[in-house]
Amino acid sequence: MQINAAGCHYRILNQQIKEAVKSGERHIELFHVNGQRYIGDGVRGDVVIVINGVPGNDLGAFMTGPTIIVNSFAQDGVANTMNDGKIVIKGHAGDVLGYGMRGGRLFVKGDVGYRVGIHMKEYEDKIPVIIAGGRAGDFFGEYMAGGILILLNLNDEKPQKATGDYLATGMHGGVIYIRGDIDKYQIGDGVGIKELKEADNTVLHKLLDEYCNDLDIDKEFILKKPFTKLIPISKRPYGKLYAY
Questions:
Q1: Is residue 176 within 8 Å of residue 141, measured between CB atoms?
Q2: How far apart are CA 55 and CA 73, in angstroms?
Q3: What is the pLDDT of residues 37-57, one digit of tens each?
Q4: What residues contact 158, with CB distance under 8 A and at least 6 apart?
Q5: Separation CA 184–CA 162 (nearest Å)
Q6: Per-residue pLDDT averaged across 13-34, rounded?
Q7: pLDDT (tens digit per residue) in 100-125
Q8: How far apart are CA 233 and CA 216, in angstroms?
Q9: Which listed CATH number (2.40.37.10, 2.160.20.60, 3.40.1260.10, 2.170.270.10) goes with 73-241?
Q10: Using H for helix, E for strand and C for coil, what is the string for the chain?
């Protein structure tokens, strides 16, 4: 099924999508998307939504099951509190991606903004995953409580840091893998740099197989540079700073 989103108000567009899913459509392609918010929000089931254009904020929020493919860039709030499913973005994406994300996959080919993975958590047997192919802004993995963040920094022709400052600030669960080295001054209190174990390599290889297949990226090129692993070494990294 095809939907022309040119000039379409976001409420009308989202109503059309939900009605199509309810009627049994399993492949929906949107054309001329230009900033419409909330696409795929709360949608359930085995359905693929292909977006041609740039969707607005909160793409795939509270989603459970569908696959969303964006053939361009995406704005802020992608995968907000997402329960399950997959979002693949073939360009850059904005800030606060995966806020409170509880399951599923978010794959971004390019750079991502600030506060990516903030408050990510594991829910029941679900482990949320975010992989970004470029760089990230400040507060990557802020207050992360569970899940997996992977940052590849593939656009490293110029020697720049993979992330901004305040990396993993307040992190108290989950794991972060960053391709390349990290300076200790970038990392928040209560977070440690650890060597990868065989189990880490197994997880990385499996997730990178899926990521590279979805985004047509050479996995062997990715693996030419080693990864740095970050994990929390405290369950309450700032407990002594609070008053009771």
A1: yes
A2: 8
A3: 999 999 999 999 999 999 999
A4: none
A5: 13
A6: 97
A7: 999 999 999 999 999 999 999 998 89
A8: 36
A9: 2.160.20.60
A10: CEEECCCCCHHHHHHHHHHHHHCCCCEEEEEEEECCCCCCCCCECCCEEEEEEECCCCCCCCCEEEEEEECCCCCCCCCCCCCEEEEEECCCCCCCCCCCCCCCEEEECCCCCCCCCCCCCCECCECCEEEECCCCCCCCCCCCEEEEEEECCCCCCCCCCCCCCCECCCCCEEEEEEECCCCHHHECCCEEEECCCHHHHHHHHHHHHHHHHHHCCCHHHHCCCCEEEEEECCCCCCHHHCCC
Mean predicted confidence (pLDDT) in 18-38: 97
